[in-house]
Design brief:
- By secondary structure, the chain is α+β, with helices and mostly antiparallel strands.
- It folds into 2 domains: 41 residues, Arc Repressor Mutant, subunit A; 72 residues, Lrp/AsnC effector binding domain/regulation of amino acid metabolism (RAM) domain (Alpha-Beta Plaits, 2-Layer Sandwich).
- The protein is built from 5 helices and 4 strands.
- Strands 2-3-1-4 form a 4-stranded antiparallel beta sheet.
- Strand 2 and strand 3 form a beta hairpin.
- Helix 2 crosses helix 3.
- The longest helix is centred in the N-terminal third of the chain and has 13 residues.
């Protein structure tokens, strides 16, 4: 991977819908070179897919929570299946550390998030305990391959 590949990844991570001609102009490279580089990055699995970023607040989801859950390991599959049945749950990650899994959830407001946690998560068989962290503000950093 060279500087052209890094520039391509950098620009695509900012806007995956950018056209090849605009991308070529932005990084000062020939369109055919950029096209073949992107194809090569896809083939090497450095680019897995092109996607969009959804504005959850504009969709009405004003509260994001990450909830750490400890569970009976014998109930792992049941717990994960039940979590995905909850409408606000978007992601379940099995992790190391103080929790067994981290669950990312969205709700319209704090009252709805309370209902998700107490009425849904709290009633799943196999969950021993949970701790929720409400996102107050998010800041993001450019990916490490971004060029200055």
């Amino acid at each position: 991977m060279d500087k052209i590949d890094q520039k391509i990844l950098s620009e695509l991570s900012r806007d995956s819908s950018i056209s090849i001609p605009k991308l070529s102009e932005k990084i000062n490279a020939n369109s055919s070179v950029v096209y073949s580089r992107i194809k090569r990055l896809i083939n090497k699995k450095l680019i897995e897919r092109f996607t969009i970023e959804i504005n959850n607040k504009e969709l009405g989801f004003g509260v994001k929570s990450i909830t750490g859950i400890n569970m009976d390991s014998k109930q792992r599959n049941n717990v994960i299946q039940e979590l995905f049945k909850i409408p606000g749950v978007r992601e379940v990650a099995e992790v190391t550390g103080r929790f067994d899994i981290l669950v990312t959830m969205y709700a319209e407001n704090l009252n709805d998030m309370y209902k998700i946690v107490s009425d849904n998560i709290g009633k799943i068989e196999g969950i021993i305990g949970s701790e929720s962290f409400i996102e107050m503000k998010t800041r993001t950093k450019q990916m490490p391959y971004m060029l200055e």
